[in-house]
Every structure is written in structure tokens, then in C-alpha cells.
Specification:
Blueprint: H1 11-16, E1 19-23, E2 35-39, E3 45-47, H2 77-81, H3 91-125, H4 130-133, H5 142-152, H6 159-177, E4 226-228, E5 231-233, H7 249-255, H8 261-273, E6 278-281, E7 289-292, H9 296-307, E8 310-315, E9 319-324, E10 327-337, E11 345-351, E12 357-363, H10 365-370, H11 379-391, E13 398-403
Antiparallel strand pairs: 1-2, 2-3, 4-5, 6-7, 8-9, 9-10, 10-11, 11-12, 12-13
Length: about 400
């Protein structure tokens, strides 16, 4: 939403709004939008991707919204990106199709050669064979002879083979659905063969391309360890199964005014503030908060901060309310710089409860380290810790902040 329209909360308010919207032509860029909203008596307000809802979007943390339809039908971004589903064919299907095509070409060649030889032979021997005299051979019909040999040689095309293969694949898909070894107990989900086209290629995986954030982790992420001010927390031996962050030494250092206590507090405040997560409270239990995150890593960091006493509770248009070790703190959000594949980082500019201006930033180590001050502390030791985390297959996010 926009700050200029946040007072519009009823149908009567909507009817009283006057103005118009300038927007770009319909295109297929889902994560980009450029436009201006000009309300009567006000200056133009820029509109971006965060101000629009795409077709098919689901509302979270609110029961209703008032909006203006910008694109309809095939002009909507979702329809612009829609395309016909590709047909999946197994290697056996491709090989079978090629072989049938070759057999068909062989059939055509045999029929052409046989028809030519037959007409030539009958022309030479029509006077020497009595049964040929009863036939009208004055005008030989080559096309009729060609069709005759097509029928004679039709057994070259294995028509029943295709039907048999499809029936076998159908039965394989049925048995896959009944396979108890492929039943997921934790999610109560059986195997479901949505297509029987590629049954014979199941299990023949040759190469896995993975960025370590979703393909191999099933998008199930948790905060397990961190390096703050040159000290590693949550680093357990490889023999121990670490399901979540369980090293509460970091809280002891924070409460006991360790030399790194201020950095620890800033770190967890950053995790609780620098994100685009929306808290959703359940109707039957308002204290139970469900975080709606745009990515699994964002949700994991917010949940990790909550378990360590820095709970993200409320988000409004321009504020974020957190509970920091039992104390409620309100941060004014001045600007949000969303994460993109080009920036490789996300930043928020906030005004803290003390009135200070700070920028919180998190993202890839390559872009964060390029922007650090030369005199920054803990650079080398943190880089060493990141290398250790990476060798264990962990997904790494670097956090930093600046104070005006």
C-alpha cells in the first residue's frame, strides 16, 4: 500500500478518491513495475513492485484490501508469462519414434521399388502369360500398385508396440502410486505419478545442479551457528546432530556485558528488523505468531532471533515493533532496499528508539566485504569462520550495519 491511501478503509472512502494512475505498458517482468499515482490536490507518488498484487496472489495478515485493476486478461503479468507446458518424452520414446519413422521410410522405399518392378515386369510379360491377357494393362496405374504394396508390407510398422508400451507405463504409474516405500510419513503424502511418459527414467539421475539453498535442503532452513565479533556460537562437532541454534553462551555474554555485548545486540536487532517478513497472528491464539516470509532464509533468521529473545511482533507501513529481551522497541522504517539478484543484498534505513539513524544490511559476503571500511574490525577472523561454515555445507549470510 501507499501512505497517501492508508486512510482509505471503507467503500465510502474509495468513492471519494479522485485521481489517476500512470503505468508502464503490459509486460512479462514479474518483479518490476514503474508507475505514478496522481491524486487530486497531491503530488505524484511513485509506485513500485511492492505496491501491486499479481493475479492469483493470496492475502496474508489481512482480510481485505481495496485496489485498482491495472491490467486485465492477457495483459496481466502472469498471463504474459504463461506458456504451454512442454511435452516430456523419455529417451526410449524418442528412440522408438525415430525407429518407427525409419521403418516408415523403408516401407515407402520398398513400395516404390516393388510397384516399379511390378509394372515393368507386367509390361514385358503380358503376352507370354495367359492370365495377364484378361487384365487391362494399356494404362498401368502406378499409384494403385504403390498402395497395394503399402498394404502388403504394412507389417513393417509395429502398431501394437506403441499400444503395449503405453499400457505398461500406465500400470507402472499405478504401482508407483501404491508403493509404500515411496510414502512420506512426515507429510502423510503418497507418491503421485502425474505423468507416465518418463517412468523408465526414474532413478537415472546423472548430474545435480544445486545452489545449496533449496534443491538439497527442501527449503527447510534453520539458524544453526553464527560468528559475532570474532566469536563463533553454535559450532558443534560434526558427530552431533544440530537441528537448531542451541548455544546460549551468546545470551550470557550479552547479559554479562561482555566486550562484544553491543555488537551481539546489534546483530540480533538486525535479524529482527532487516527483512520483509509479515507476522500473522492466529485468531484462536493471538500470542502465536506465524511468519510469512518471501524466502526460507529470511524466515529462518527471524525465527532464530525470536528463539534468542529478539522477537519480531508487529509491522506497519512505516514501523517495525520488536521485543528485545522483554523490552518492546519500535523502529521507524525510512527506506527499504529490497534484495535483487543484481544487488545480492538487502538494506533498511531505520530510526532507532533512541533517535539514531542506522542502516542494516545483509547479503552475500562478496558484496558486503567490498563495502566495508578499511579499518573495520573482525574482517579476517569472520572470513575464516565463513570458510569453515562453507566447508560444512552451510548457507551463509553476512550482516553489517552503519550509524550516522
Amino acid at each position: 500500500g501507499s501512505a497517501e491511501t492508508k486512510h482509505v478503509t471503507s467503500a465510502g472512502d474509495v468513492m471519494s478518491v479522485q485521481g489517476f494512475i500512470e503505468c508502464e505498458h503490459p509486460n512479462s517482468r514479474l518483479y518490476e513495475f514503474v508507475g505514478n499515482m496522481l491524486l487530486k490536490g497531491q503530488t505524484a507518488t511513485p509506485l513500485g513492485p511492492s505496491h501491486i498484487l499479481l493475479r492469483g496472489a493470496q492475502l496474508k495478515n489481512t482480510q481485505w484490501v481495496y485496489g485498482v485493476v491495472l491490467y486485465t486478461g492477457h495483459d496481466s503479468k502472469v498471463m504474459q508469462n504463461s506458456s504451454a507446458a512442454p511435452i516430456k518424452r523419455s529417451r526410449m520414446d524418442q528412440t522408438t519414434n525415430v525407429q518407427i519413422l525409419l521403418l516408415f521410410l523403408l516401407l515407402i522405399i520398398l513400395a516404390l521399388v516393388s510397384a516399379s518392378i511390378d509394372i515393368s515386369w507386367m509390361d514385358k510379360n503380358k503376352n507370354s502369360h495367359w492370365y495377364l491377357a484378361a487384365m487391362d494393362l494399356s494404362t498401368p496405374n502406378f499409384f494403385l500398385e504403390f498402395l497395394t504394396f503399402i498394404i502388403v508390407y504394412n507389417n513393417l510398422i509395429p502398431i501394437s508396440l506403441i499400444v503395449t508400451i503405453e499400457f505398461v507405463k500406465f500400470m507402472q504409474a499405478y504401482l508407483i502410486n501404491l508403493d509404500l516405500d515411496m510414502y512420506n510419513v512426515h507429510r502423510d503424502t503418497p507418491a503421485m505419478a502425474r505423468s507416465s511418459n518418463i517412468n523408465e527414467e526414474l532413478g537415472q539421475v546423472k548430474v545435480i545442479f544445486s545452489d545449496k539453498t533449496g534443491t538439497l535442503t527442501c527449503n527447510d532452513m534453520t539458524l544453526k551457528k553464527c560468528s559475532i565479533a570474532g566469536i563463533v556460537y553454535g559450532d558443534k562437532p560434526l558427530s552431533e546432530d544440530i537441528s537448531e541454534f542451541s548455544d546460549y553462551t551468546v545470551l550470557d555474554n550479552l547479559r554479562e556485558h561482555h566486550p562484544s555485548a553491543s555488537v551481539i545486540r546489534e546483530f540480533f536487532s538486525l535479524l529482527a528488523v532487516c527483512h520483509t517478513v509479515v507476522p500473522e497472528r492466529k485468531h484462536d491464539n493471538v500470542d502465536d505468531i506465524v511468519y510469512q516470509a518471501s524466502s526460507p532464509d529470511e524466515g529462518a533468521l527471524v525465527m532464530g532471533a525470536k528463539k534468542l529473545g529478539f522477537s519480531f511482533n508487529v509491522r506497519t507501513h512505516d514501523t517495525v515493533v520488536i521485543n528485545a529481551l522483554g523490552e518492546e522497541e519500535t523502529y521507524e522504517i525510512l527506506q527499504v532496499l529490497d534484495f535483487t539478484s543484481a544487488r545480492k543484498r538487502m538494506s533498511v534505513i531505520v530510526r532507532t528508539p533512541a533517535g539514531c539513524l542506522k542502516i542494516y544490511c545483509k547479503g552475500a559476503d562478496s558484496v558486503i566485504y567490498e563495502r566495508l571500511h578499511p579499518s573495520q574490525l573482525f574482517v579476517d577472523v569472520t572470513l575464516l569462520h565463513m570458510e569453515q561454515f562453507a566447508t560444512k555445507g552451510s548457507c551463509i549470510v553476512v550482516c553489517s550495519f552503519g550509524v550516522q
